[in-house]
Amino acid sequence: DPFVVVEILGRPGDRKEVKTRTIQDNGFNPIWGETFSFTVSEPEVSLLSFTVYDEDTLSSNDFIGCFALPVSQARSGIRSVRLKDEHGAPLPFGSILVRITKTESS
Prior knowledge:
Strand content: over 45%
Helix content: under 10%
Order of helices and strands: EEEEEE
Strand order of the largest sheet: 2-1-3-4
Distance between the termini: 40 Å
C-alpha cells in the first residue's frame, strides 16, 4: 500500500510537504497520477525530496526508499528516480517515474 511524500526542503518560506494518495494492494506497479506545485524562491539552497512508504494501519508506516536532488539541478521532463535505502545505497529495483516541469517566474 505505497504512498509518496514529496517535499521541498530549504528556507522556511520555501518548505512544503505533500502526500500522494495510498495505492491499495499494488506495491509493485503503483500509479499515482497526481500533480503538485511548489514555489521556490531560492532554488540554490533547496532540495526536492521523494520518500516512499508502505502504509500500515495497525503500526507505523514502513520506509521503502527515498531520493533527493537540489532544485537547481532538476530538469523538466519525465525521469526515472532511483530510490535509495535508509543507508543511502541504491535499491536494486526501486524507482519511481516522475514528471518535472520547471517554470521561471518573472
